[in-house]
Amino acid sequence: MAGFKKLIFLQLISWIVFSALGSFLVASSFDNAVSRAQQNAQSMVSNYIQEKTMADVTPEHIRLSLGSGNVFSSFIVRDFAGQTVLNINTQSEMPVLAGVIANAMNSVRPQFAVNKSKDIKIEFLINVQSQAQLLQQAMIFMIIISALMAFIPIFYMKTIYRKLNRNVSMTVADAVDIYITQNQVSESIDQDFNTNKVAELGAELAPSFNRLAHFLKSKQEDIKSAAQSIKQEAYKDVVTGLGNRNMFVEYYEHQIESASDKSFGSLAMIRCSELQMINQTRGYQKGDLYIKGIADIVKHVSGTYTGSQVFRLNSSDFAVILPNIPSKEAERFGETLQARFTQYQQNQELSSVANTGIVPYESGKPLGELLSVVDNAMSMAQSKQANAWHLQRETDLVNNVGAGFGNQNWRRVIREVIESRRVMLMMQNIMPIGKNVKAYAEIQARFKTEDGQMLPTASFLAMAEKLEMAVEIDQLIIDTSIEMIKSRNFNEKFFGINVTASSAHSDQFVIWLERRLLKEANLSSKLIFEVSEFGLQQNIKASKRFIDMVHRVGARITVERFGVGLTSFKFFRDLKPDFIKMDASYTRGLEEDKNNQYFMRLMVDLAHRIGVSVFAEGVESQEEKHIVETLCLDGVQGYYIEKPKEI
């Protein structure tokens, strides 16, 4: 397009130059013709007056002697005194272009003839109308011809340019189609231009397309690299930096399940047994540190095995793939992990850290089946002791996978704990804020195996719920707590005891608890039963029946983990609890989170209006405690206030 504009500019300049030159030549010819005419007229007039007297010079005589009036446009006769004797004037305006040229070149000038002896002076102008008409026509003709000569090529070239541009576009389109169809960079792309249209411009386009092909190839590699980086980030766990479940599934499916070569190894699953307890009692920041600590231990131990891979499957589970590791070596892996977990447990003052389930694998084994087996191994490990591991051998897989071996073992362990009453009670105080606030100490239960080893509390309680044995566990905890209070003479203290939602909604448990509390009427007023908000919501009618019974015997109710569900305050007015515990997630980073501060202030105001005291749990720092105090809560609980201690 730039070249076409340049062509137009050059043609326009050429036309102007040609028109100027033609005009000059035509004007020069006109000037020469007028000059000759004036010379001829002057000779004729001079000859005419040689033999005439003043009396002979009359208009009629002049017309007869010198021709018609078309010869002169002006004819003036004077005597030598300067007096005008005769004045004939037939001037008319010349055509515009001729007039402009005549004035510019001063072509038509007055002419003079004198006869002194006869006292005659003549001044005249010749009539150039015919020459002016010819000049005008010549100028117009010359301008039109020069314009046609200048602009016809422009229109012709524009048509050619459009056609050429269309041909080039089609050629390039064909070349691109060839490249896309082949979807590869050949060594000499000019060989690919095999159509007639492409062949016409192939030689010129080939180098450019070679460069384009190599550029696209480099960009494709950059995109693949960037996509891989994005995929790595998307498949990465934020807390630990390990691959997540998606990466684990992809690795197993590509490297093990669909592997062409025969391979074997061991798969270990590590479950963090105390994460839920730490999140609730110490806060989510401590929970993240706990997860990072376990991840470091797992990475360090598995790092001694060639080709090992570590993944974080969900909030509490890790997976470790140990290629080419037989069962005997996997046992040593489990023992090493247990030792490291026990050391970490002592340093962090935990009741347990994590359990490990291990199973062997072979290439071609479906992942779903393997995960089912390793989960069974995990259940076995959890039922042994704190930080225990269990390896599910081939013989176990054949005989017990379909029989729910892990669940059966858990049932045996829980039944043995109940019958032997191997429960240990811990206590964590709630610190009141204000002189008139009545707070209490929360009783927390821990469970032991027949060997005296501590069982993971969260796993134990979860399995008890799953196996419908939670009611018996709650009865054991309540019985043990009442006996402890009586034996230690804690008659002046107030104690909170956790009750699962399944127990609170059980008619059998409610009847048993009412009879038990009526039997210990002097202790009932010292007890506060804690039930989660979510659990109460599952059956509001049963929840109200349980709370009414508790109030009837003189005990009180705390709704714990408040704020996680969507309970309305109409619900609380109907149930009439005595305390609520804000979930630990609301105290996490409370000093910086204005939204949580506003929510807690709102909850405190509404709760106080219906006579409910509000506690904060999971307080881990001086800053959080200070903010809680400014929000007018009634009490605080957490590791910053007091760690759980054995009674």
UniProtKB/TrEMBL annotation:
Concerning Gene3D superfamilies, the annotation shows: 3.30.70.270, EAL domain
Membrane spanning residue stretches: 134-156
User: Cross-referenced InterPro entries, in alphabetical order?
Assistant: Cyclic-di-GMP_PDE-like (IPR050706), EAL_dom (IPR001633), EAL_sf (IPR035919), GGDEF_dom (IPR000160), Nucleotide_cyclase (IPR029787), Rev_trsase/Diguanyl_cyclase (IPR043128)
GO MF: cyclic-guanylate-specific phosphodiesterase activity
Q: Which residue ranges does the record assign to the GGDEF domain?
A: 263-394
Q: Which SUPFAM superfamilies match?
A: EAL domain-like, Nucleotide cyclase
Keywords attached to this Swiss-Prot or TrEMBL record, sorted alphabetically, are:
Membrane, Transmembrane, Transmembrane helix
Pfam families (UniProt xref): EAL, GGDEF
- What SMART domains has UniProt attached to this entry? EAL, GGDEF
Instruction: Provide the EAL domain boundaries.
Output: 407-647
Q: NCBIfam families from the entry?
A: GGDEF
Q: What is this protein called?
A: Diguanylate phosphodiesterase
The protein's organism comes out as: Pseudoalteromonas rubra
- Organismal lineage: Bacteria, Pseudomonadati, Pseudomonadota, Gammaproteobacteria, Alteromonadales
